[in-house]
Amino acid sequence: MKRCLIHDIGRIEGLLDADVTFLRGPEMESMQGLSDAWIYIEDGIISSIGSMTAPFMGEVDERIDATGALVLPTYCDSHTHLVFAETREKEFAMRIEGISYEEIALAGGGILNSVDKLRRVSEEDLFQRTLKRAKEVMTHGTGCIEIKSGYGLDVESELKILRVARRIGRETPLTVKTTFLGAHAFPNEYLENTEAYINLIIDGMIPAVAKEGLADYIDVFCERGYFDKHQMERILLAGKEHGLRPKVHVNQFSSIGGVQMAIKNEALSTDHLEVMTDHDIEDISSSDTIATALPACSFFLDIPYAPAEQIMAKGGILALATDFNPGSSPCSNMNFIMSLACIRMGMTPLQALAGCTINGAAAMELSEHHGSITPGKKADFIITKPMRSLAQLPYSFASDPISKVILGGGIVHQNEGY
Ligand code: NIG
Ligand code: FE
Fold it and tell me: Which atom of ligand 1 is nearest the CA belonging to 84?
């Protein structure tokens, strides 16, 4: 058995009881803290937590000095498109010149640009490119991550992406969940026959993905010019027949009934939610479907932010994620998500932490073992640089707050000098 002690912790944030798997509405303020503390770990699992006034006396194999800083649970980033071939900074420059994200997409850029690039890259090459990003993700303090397909849009290319995503889960210390997003856009070869593409998703892609066990969830981009709510439902039902629970993109640019259709189909989460009617807010907040806000996408595209304060006030379960992708959110940094949540969405530091940890874990069905500092859960921690309180992390918005990242009790990243 490997025994490890993290000692001289200035303050632990993100403590929860073992039976709490998500936090709803006002409960999002309720993660607890403990000052001057230690955490004892056995074989990568949190065994006990105590105060430095009663130091841990048992024998240990490894000691990690937290030097009076904060210890937090690692982030649970429940919405990313980590597997892509190339960045899209040309489109970024076009947007600065005044051409909109939607206009760029209509002109053949956007998602279809990424599809074109990805189809030309071999699976091994795609894995190596993704691996670099996965390592960067860990340096920012993320321990669990959801990864979507959606830049392949043909059977082989979608399978290729999901195989790469699964391999990231096997070959890095990250805990990975995967989502099949064949319904991300209509590919060029089906632009004149969108019905045939939907049939390909239902009859070709979903069975192939399920046969190889490549996905945990099914996603659809429900939006004007992409998939309407009825098309979404057909695809979700086909996915559900193969054991894939819905986790969907809705209300990014328009409110077209996606929220209600997702709830009806027992979606685990509805993600984006930048454009919401009062009814949408009411419906998502009173449902068991998690509302996932993606503030880096709002920041990067300069579009509205999801109405987090209203969703929390009405009792919704709010999660926060990066939406890391080459078009609308080239950001893998959950520390920045913490800052945006506080600065742009009116969330308190504790609410933002709950959104980035336990509720993100819930949005990947991982909260039994991840998403908080709780005996019995995985020993996944961020040790910060010297910091007086949790608020200092989102406050220091463009600096790296991390000293060490620990996953399963092992250090996976350490900043030099800390
Ligand atoms: O979540 N909105 C749909 N999909 C991605 C962006 C895709 C892209 O621009 O490549 C998103 O924002
Ligand atoms: Fe997305």
Answer: 10
Q: Residue 293 pairs with which residues in a beta bridge? A: 272, 320
Residue 252, ligand 1, Cβ within 6 A: yes
Closest protein CA for atom 5 of ligand 1? 328
CA dihedral 275, 259, 101, 338 (to 10 degrees): 70
According to DSSP, residue 201 is labeled I
The reported pLDDT for the residue numbered 409 is 96
Domains and CATH numbers, the chain: 3-73+372-414 (2.30.40.10), 76-362 (3.20.20.140)
Question: Residues 212-226: what's their mean pLDDT?
Answer: 98
Q: Is 404 exposed, middle or buried, given 0-12, 13-18 or 19+ CB atoms closer than 10 A? A: buried
**98 Cα–ligand 1 center, Å:** 19
Residue 269: in which H helix or E strand, if any?
Answer: strand 269-272
Q: Phi then psi for 161, rounded to 5 degrees?
A: -65, -45
The token duo for 306 is 């999801």
Which pLDDT belongs to residue 416? 87
The residue whose CA has the least distance to atom 1 of ligand 1 is 323
Residue nearest to atom 8 of ligand 1 (CA): 327
Q: Tokens at residue 295, please?
A: 């503030």
Separation between Cα atoms, residue 345 and residue 340, nearest integer Å: 7
pTM given for the model: 0.98
Q: Which neighbouring-strand residues pair with 76?
A: 144
CA–CA separation, 309 and 25 (whole Å): 9
Cβ-based neighbours of 364, under 8 Å, separated by 6 or more = 76, 78, 144, 146, 177, 216
**Whether the predicted pLDDT of 252 surpasses 90:** yes
- φ and ψ at 126, to 5 degrees? -60, -40
For residue range 317-365, list pLDDT tens digits in order. 999 999 999 999 999 999 999 999 999 999 999 999 999 999 999 999 9
Q: Which of 87, 13, 79 lies closest to 49, judged by CA? A: 13
Report the atom number in ligand 1 closest to the C-alpha of 272. 1
107 has a pLDDT exceeding 90: no
Pseudo-torsion of CA 57, 62, 65, 69, nearest 10°?
-90
- Binned at pLDDT 50, 70 and 90, residue 172 comes out as very high
Ligand 1 midpoint to CA 67 (Å): 41
Q: Pull the structure tokens for residue 243.
A: 């054991």
